[in-house]
Write a structure and sequence with these properties.
Number of helices: 4
Number of domains: 1
Shape: globular
CATH topology: Aminopeptidase
Strand order of the largest sheet: 1-2-3-4-5
CATH superfamily: Gcn5-related N-acetyltransferase (GNAT)
Oligomer: single chain
Number of strands: 8
Distance between the termini: 29 Å
Strand content: 25-35%
CATH class: Alpha Beta
Helix content: 25-40%
C-alpha cells in the first residue's frame, strides 16, 4: 500500500532502499533518541522483519520519500514492533537530519493515524519517546497523543491516542 500526502510519498521499503535508509538509521546523530542500526546487515534485517509483519498485519513502517525529488528522507508509520513485542500498535519514525524541522514527522503521523482510524479501525495507537526529545513530544501532542507514564525498562515515555469517539 502506498500513500501520498501533500509533500510525501509513503511506500513499503525494498531491499534496494537499505543503503539510503542506513544513511540515517545507522547515523548516531540522527538516531540519538532511538535504536541505531549498527551495520547494513542490521538495517536489512530490520526492514525484512517489518515487511514480514506487513504481510501478516497489513501495516508496517514505510520508506518516506519527498514527492518532488522522490528521495528517501525517512522511515516510519504504524507497526507492532517485532523486536520489542507486546506494546500493541505504535507509531514511530526516523528522518535524515537534512529533513528535520520541515514538518515531515507531523505529516507522516497524520497520515498514519488516518489509516489507523479509517481503513484499519484500530482502537488505539501508542508511541514511545525519550524525555529529552521535545520535538517528537510536540509532534505526538499535536496529533492528540497523551503522555501515560515513564517506562523504565525502555527509558522512554509512553504516549497513547485513542481513536476519535472512543474516549
Amino acid at each position: 500500500m502506498m500513500l501520498e500526502t501533500d509533500r510525501l510519498l509513503l511506500r513499503p521499503p525494498t531491499l534496494k532502499d537499505v543503503p539510503a535508509l542506513f544513511a540515517f538509521l545507522g547515523d548516531p546523530q540522527a538516531m540519538q533518541f532511538t535504536h541505531l542500526d549498527e551495520s547494513l546487515r542490521h538495517c536489512r534485517r530490520r526492514i525484512a522483519l517489518h515487511e514480514r509483519r506487513r504481510r501478516r498485519d497489513g501495516y508496517a513502517p514505510w520508506a518516506i520519500l519527498t514527492r518532488d525529488a522522490q528521495r528517501i528522507v525517512g522511515w516510519g508509520g504504524i507497526y507492532e514492533d517485532p523486536f520489542d513485542p507486546g506494546w500493541g500498535v505504535e507509531v514511530g519514525y526516523a528522518f535524515h537530519p537534512e529533513a528535520w524541522g520541515k514538518g515531515y514527522a507531523t505529516e507522516l503521523v497524520t497520515a498514519a493515524l488516518d489509516l489507523a482510524d479509517g481503513a484499519l479501525g484500530l482502537p488505539e495507537v501508542r508511541a514511545f519517546v525519550r524525555e529529552d526529545n521535545p520535538a517528537s513530544r510536540r509532534v505526538l501532542e499535536k496529533a492528540g497523543f497523551e503522555e501515560q507514564r515513564f517506562v523504565p525498562e525502555l527509558g522512554r515515555l509512553l504516549y497513547r491516542r485513542l481513536r476519535p469517539g472512543r474516549e
